[in-house]
Amino acid sequence: MKFGKEFVSQMVPEWQEAYLDYKSLKALLKDLLRFLQTRTPTAMASTPNGSVLNRRASLYRAFSGLTCRHRDSPRAKEDEEILVTEDGEDGRYQTFVTVSDEERGYEVKFFNELDHEFNKVVGFYKKKVKEVVEEADELSRQMDALIALRLKVDNPMVDFGDGPQSAVHPINGRSAGGQHMDVIEEVEMMEDEDRGDNEPKTRTQKANGGIEGFKPPQLEILEHVKINVAPETPVSTLKGIILNSENQELSFSKKELRKAEEQMKQAFNEFYQKLRLLKSYCFLNQLAFSKIMKKHDKITSRNASKVHLNMLETSYLGTCDDVSRLIERVEATFIKHFANGNHRKGMKTLRPTARREKHRSTFVLGLFSGCSIALVVAIIVLIHARGLLESEGRSLYMENIFPLYSLFGFIVLHMVIFSANIYYWRRYRVNYSFIFGFKKGTELGYRQSFLMSSGLAVLALAGVLSNLDMEMDPSTQSFRALTELVPLGLVIVLVGIMLCPFNIVYRSSRFFLIQAVVHCVCAPLYKVTLPDFFLADQLTSQVQAFRSLEFYVCYYGWGDFKKRSHNCLDSHVYKTFYFIVAIIPYWIRSLQCLRRLVEEKDGMQGLNGLKYFSTIVAVAMRTSFDMKKGMKWKILAMTSSIVATVVSTYWDIVIDWGLLRRNSENRWLRDKLLIPNKSVYFVAMVLNVLLRLAWMQSVLGFREAPFIHRTALVAIVACLEIIRRGIWNFFRLENEHLNNVGKYRAFKSVPLPFNYYHDEGKSI
């Protein structure tokens, strides 16, 4: 792989604009190369070292600034053409170039761009290093409070007081410090500027309770901190509402300690990943700078890279080792305090291994896909050979069996669409794993997602084939009970796999999905995160699947499945729940918007909640029209559906996708686009409108078409809505990713367990 592609593939997606623009610099060198290749021999004169120069040379500076020589830049005779200087005020670098009159424009343009890119990289790196140093200071303060809390929980009677010596335990007379400090020996995260050395300070606790080079954490720290109680569960949320306080006094309980340790472990893990990516950022930019200068030397036959690489080594990018030292100290601290000194266990947590692609997964995926296609062909041939479409039992089958298997069709289609989403997110470098908050190495790829969907498709199609019997057995006037129970058995198997506690079938992903489902069901009692409202949006496109589940309960609970008969449509209870299950997803989404409105004070969340409420009204009117008919209900249903469709379509395109910006760089789109072909965005907007209109089919009178049963038409419309949701998924996450890129937001915010009193009113 060429370096340019490798460079792009290893970038932090959210920081891509802060990297050296290797592509544009390479394009400038290509322009220079074309110019040199088209020059006439008479216009050239060779220098002793082989470089091509005009004897009438002048000094041109790339851009304004101080012109003093760089102290540490050795300059040989063959390097007289290149001079790099540093502005002492802000540390910016400038390049002076001696070139011929003809080459002047190309050389000056290249070095001007090179200086601009290098100063951009150095400035960004300085800013990020300053941020991580400040964050390290805060983590150090948090660790002081955690260690003091550990001591207090392990030995509630201990009290260090104000002096440097440890108090004597009132029970056994031993030094309280001597009993516990052996597990608190710590490598400090920040260097001691007063001592002037760059090595970590080791705190050692002597056996007699005396302290050398170590001041024990004073328990009085606990008098100046509160524990941050994030409302993460329904109980804690209700307690926070009743107490009207987010911070509570420390109770010094083991449960409180475990919670604080878990939060600190997560904070250290996230901080360590930030340090690693920052170190990678530094290395990649240095490598790109070296590569582009070597290309320049090869094209111009000069030795300009020598001066520039020396400048690189003496710049902040090459001399600052704060990140490397912090990485070492975070590793030592994490292993000591959160891995019980087990280096292997600690590093496994800090550096989880990525999921490896297995050949057997690809083989099984191909097998399941082939079986699915074969089963579809077998079903089509069987229907055509037996003439089942003209059979008397056609209506009986469509009203009883088809709704049962359509549930699996909706799930499989949604999984296939989501697999396509993952594929295109990866192709266009949308950092979906960070956006969803997946743990590194646990996120599913498009192959794994498609593998599960094809496996479920094989089971469902095999069941359809076993149930493809339109006539009752004349001798028993009933169908075979075993085959009639196949759909119910498939549902039980599917639920069993989802809830399976064993580490099979992507357990981490299954549990992540279950957690998101619980958060949706209990809305608004859980804090709303992107995975929660993203899943709730998916559920709004699966209304027909919820109604199929309701039909399962009615058909197998109160119907006579052996004779394929039921009276669900005549039951008032069924009709009531038929209405309720349709509005549940939209109601969940409205409650999530309400929670975010209260917490974030964002008025847009209130408008979003009203959008979902308008959809609830539209669904209620449509359901009432389905059950009661009549012109009045039809007008109400049509009016509410038109309003909900217009509002939802506008919100999808303008708010969720960020498109239709009139004054953007890409007219009627947005400033930044990931897909080079702009027509894709216009096609997506048109498809979104058309598929939204399909949502109104129930109130426009298109209930049944020739050769298409009513239930089949409903299923087709539901499938169109799932496809529309798949299109929405890609552009929604693309917009979220570009927002992260614009803010250089590559890490999630981790709440810290302790809040110092003097820090109240400002975020930690």
Automatic annotation (TrEMBL):
Residues in SPX domain copies: 1-310
Subcellular location: Cell membrane
Function: May transport inorganic phosphate (Pi).
Domain of life the protein comes from: Eukaryota
Assigned protein family: Belongs to the SYG1 (TC 2.A.94) family.
A GO CC term assigned to this protein in UniProt: plasma membrane
Name recorded for this polypeptide: Putative SPX domain-containing protein
Region (Disordered): 191-213
GO MF, one annotated term: inositol hexakisphosphate binding
